[in-house]
Design goal:
This protein is mostly helical and 357 residues long. It has helices at 32-52, 60-70, 77-91, 102-114, 119-138, 163-173, 186-209, 213-217, 248-259, 280-288, 297-309, 314-321, 326-329, 333-356; strands at residues 2-5, 12-18, 21-26, 224-225, 230-235, 240-245.
Length: 357
């Protein structure tokens, strides 16, 4: 096929077959001639690898940079960029990707521990490196054949919000609340108020849909059917689609936003694109509400926990949350067991009262 345009993307895509395998990727360029040059170079590398067993080497910092670029259009891009830059700073500019060893990864893990970072941080850094390896391999660069050190992730009690805690959080996000230090400049006031309204609405949708941050951040109006009160939610993490029925609160919220929107996205940034990964204001609201042990993902846990506590089964919750594997949903199993135990007690009590009478 060569180079071609895909959907509404501004970039040229490359697609061809080699040794009965199809290779596809974005060229990340709007110039067709540049895309063709990238295609020719890619084919050359594949031929060299197949015929001579030779893979081109690449510096670790360059491989990280290419991996970051490949993620430039996803909601968590800035987070990925931050972690990749930390890795580049730690390993320096001289090391080749295929020179990485198990000992290097162990040393990185020890370094993170000594600087006060925990298992989750180490795991995130390893995830970036794994992604970099895969991306480099797809582009026919030499990569190391190593295992990653095991990272023990401590299991924490499942945290979800009570009704009172949700009320406290939304009170701290309320765009009509008094905010110290708001600019007297009319334009800045409008922008700040819009950001406050966006954060409030965003949290409500996360609570009422149980969706992932990126799923709501990228939500387009074409996915929202207000007449039927549903969202057609595409879940890129697991490559499936869910149909979510809107609560009255979510419906009212989206109806209000639809009246004032000229954007493709339900939540857009100031450049007219989908909302970025911007959790700072929401995190601050958690702290002000006395919920410092909560994160944005707590909102998804809250949605799932409420469903199970009100009789929805684990398997039904799996479909609602868009989990690819039931094992992921099983973290809520103890809540289902509690609910079943309560219902079992009520059944026995009713039967006992009948016998007694």
């Amino acid at each position: 096929m060569g180079v071609y345009k895909r959907g509404t993307s501004k970039y040229w895509y490359i697609q061809f077959q080699f040794n009965n395998k199809t290779y596809v990727r974005s060229s990340k360029t709007t110039e067709k001639s540049v895309a063709r040059q990238i295609e020719r170079e890619w084919r050359r590398k594949l031929h060299a690898e197949a015929e001579l067993g030779i893979r081109e080497r690449i510096k670790l910092v360059d491989a990280l940079d290419q991996y970051i670029t490949s993620k430039s259009e996803i909601a968590s891009y800035r987070n990925i960029q931050y972690r990749a830059n930390r890795l580049a700073g730690y390993f320096g500019t001289g090391k080749y990707l295929d020179e990485l060893t198990y000992a290097d990864l162990e040393a990185l893990q020890r370094h993170e521990r000594t600087t006060g970072n925990g298992s989750h941080t180490v795991n995130h850094l390893f995830t970036i490196l794994r992604g970099t390896f895969k991306h480099a391999a797809r582009n026919s660069y030499a990569i190391p054949t190593i295992e990653f050190p095991s990272v023990a992730i401590p299991r924490r009690p499942l945290r979800y919000l009570s009704s009172a805690e949700e009320t406290a959080l939304l009170r701290e996000l309320d765009p009509s609340r008094y905010q110290k230090g708001v600019s007297h400049d009319t334009r800045n006031q409008a922008l700040i108020r819009q950001d406050m309204q966006d954060n409030y609405d965003f949290v409500v949708l996360l609570l009422d849909t149980g969706a992932r941050y990126s799923e709501i951040a990228k939500l387009r109006w074409t996915q929202v059917d207000l007449a039927c009160r549903i969202i057609h939610l595409w879940r890129p993490k697991v490559s499936n689609e869910s149909i979510l029925y809107l609560t009255y609160r979510a419906f009212e919220l989206l109806s209000r936003r639809a009246k004032n929107s000229n954007s493709r996205f339900v939540f857009e940034n100031r450049n007219g694109k989908a909302r970025n990964y911007a959790p700072i204001s929401i995190r601050k609201a958690f702290h002000r509400a006395g919920l410092s042990d909560c994160t944005i993902h707590t909102l998804r846990h809250t949605h799932a926990s409420r469903l199970i506590q009100n009789g929805i089964s684990i398997y039904e919750v799996k479909e609602i949350l868009g989990h690819a594997d039931i094992k992921t949903t099983m973290r809520y199993a103890h809540l289902e067991q509690q609910e079943v135990s309560v219902r079992a007690r009520d059944v026995i009590e009713r039967l006992s009262s009948c016998v007694s009478s």
